[in-house]
TrEMBL record:
Keywords: Metal-binding, Oxidoreductase, Signal
InterPro entries to which the protein is assigned, alphabetical: Cu-oxidase-like_N, Cu-oxidase_2nd, Cu-oxidase_C, Cu-oxidase_fam, Cu_oxidase_CS, Cu_oxidase_Cu_BS, Cupredoxin, TAT_signal
Signal peptide: 1-24
PROSITE patterns xrefs: MULTICOPPER_OXIDASE1, MULTICOPPER_OXIDASE2, TAT
All copies of domain Plastocyanin-like, residue ranges: 39-148, 195-267, 353-454
Protein name: Multicopper oxidase family protein
CDD domains per record: CuRO_1_CumA_like
């Protein structure tokens, strides 16, 4: 496979700063603020970003399973914001969705987040107000919840994979967040790929060492096809939730925006790379310099200890709610409803709205589903558009139902390809008002947002 780099190898920014603690407050601060970061390689200047504690990704938050997470968000941005803790089956009041679970936090204001992380695994946090702009500017970070019984690895690596759109000469962040083409097509695709905010970072490992790679796609809209070179191993978790049995990695696999994949891999090559596979070859996301060691393989790891997930009993009998994904370029959507007003698609386009869920643009006054607490239900995502969408439920994971009725892995974000229909089953066991939206953030901004209620 041809292996090229996006640009010449350059020097890398220093490691992320540790979280700051203020003496006057009992909660550790999480400060959303502008910062500068060396993203583009070589002689390119630093890029002005927005980040938690001024870095992208923000500080790594890491706790033991069942532990409490407390952070005081301080908004030092020129825009209102809020933090969503993606994939955590959280207390609804802490879910970080303006207008649904809390008021947006205005510039100069704060908000105390205080919740328990019930499930072990790889999660992330990100801004949930004007997300297409705020996440693109860098407001995201990783959140790791450790199993009580951790697998034996030599390196445990949280890897936030991002896609930035920078201006050629200046390496300034492109400010066209609401550009009509991105909103109505594939979303904002960038021109610089980074891992943990660095272009093509490198880590020295030894042959035969075992690595846990915790991949999180924090990009607005790019679906990565992840490939490995010189690394062999297994997928052990998706969206935080363990796979049992573990699945050998035999080729590239896709990672949609917001999805996570945990891999346990052995260093088997004389050089090793994490790759983004594209039609014209493989691009290096991160390299592993291999020094010493021996090429002996270890046996497959045991599955990670399971999280306490609800039982999905008899999914075929569960009530079915159909959600049609509509709109975007070339879909032929004639009209849709914004608020309570039905409008021709061309008028919606003038408002920057291109997508609808069941004919509704943005969040309707009434929920898509009104579920009784503990109810098992099904959602059929029917993709009537020319694009793929990454459908995400807040506060709950779900399982896709296969053609033969078998249940797939627990996920919180599902890639639904164009023209595809997928049924998922879930147990609505977490009370509150929860968003259900496309995690291609331009699609969400341009209408692909809904919500459900569990009471
Ligand atoms: Cu990761 Cu509604 O978001
Ligand atoms: Cu979408």
């Amino acid at each position: 496979m041809p292996l090229t780099r996006r640009a010449l190898l350059g020097s890398f920014a220093a490691a992320a700063l540790p979280p700051r603690f203020a003496l006057a407050t009992p909660l550790p601060l999480l400060q959303a603020r502008p910062g500068r970061q060396k993203l583009a390689p070589g002689d390119f200047p630093e890029t002005e970003i927005w980040g938690y504690d001024g870095t992208a990704p923000g500080p790594l938050i890491r706790v033991a399973q069942g532990e409490r997470i407390q952070r005081r968000l301080v908004n030092d941005l020129p825009q209102a914001t809020a933090v969503h803790w993606h994939g955590i089956r959280i207390d609804n009041a802490m879910d970080g969705v303006p207008h649904l679970t809390q008021a947006a936090v205005e510039p100069g204001q704060g908000f105390d987040y205080d919740f328990v992380a019930p499930d072990a695994g790889t999660y992330w946090y990100h801004a949930h107000n004007r997300s297409n702009e705020q996440v693109a500017r860098g407001l995201h970070g990783m959140l790791i919840v450790d199993e009580s019984d951790r697998p034996d690895v030599d390196h445990d690596l949280p890897l936030a994979i991002d896609d930035w759109r920078l201006e050629g000469e200046t390496a300034a962040l492109s400010g066209d967040f609401d550009n009509m083409h991105d909103l109505s097509h594939e979303g904002r695709l960038g021109n610089l790929l980074t891992v943990n905010g660095q272009f093509d970072p490198s880590l020295t490992v030894a042959r035969g060492e075992r690595l846990r790679l915790r991949l999180a796609n924090v990009a607005n809209s790019r679906v990565f096809e992840i490939g490995l070179n010189g690394l062999e191993g297994w997928l052990v978790a998706l969206d935080g939730m363990p796979l049992d049995p573990v699945v050998p990695v035999t080729g590239a696999f896709s990672l949609a925006p917001a999805q996570r994949a945990d891999l346990i891999v052995d260093v088997t090559g004389e050089a090793a790379d994490l790759l983004s596979i594209e039609p014209d070859g493989g691009y290096g996301l991160m390299r592993f310099a291999v020094a010493g060691g021996s090429a002996t393989r270890r046996p497959a790891p045991a599955p990670l200890p399971p999280n306490a997930m609800p039982e999905i009993a008899n999914p075929a009998a569960a009530p079915l709610h159909t959600m049609r994904l509509m709109g975007g370029m070339m879909s032929g959507m004639a009209e849709a409803t914004l608020g309570t007003t039905t409008m021709p698609a061309r008028e919606l386009a003038q408002l920057g709205k291109f997508w609808a869920l069941n004919g509704q643009v943005d969040m309707a006054h009434e929920p898509f589903i009104d579920a009784a607490r503990g109810e098992t239900l099904r959602i059929a995502f029917v993709n009537d558009t020319m694009f793929a969408h990454g459908m995400h439920t807040h506060g709950h994971h779900f399982r896709a139902i296969g053609g033969d009725g078998t249940l797939g892995p627990w996920r919180d974000t599902l890639l639904v390809q164009r023209g595809e229909s997928v049924q998922v089953a879930m147990v609505a066991d977490n009370p509150g008002n929860w968003m259900l939206h496309c995690h291609m953030l331009e699609h969400a901004a341009a209408g692909m947002m809904s919500w459900f209620r569990v009471a």
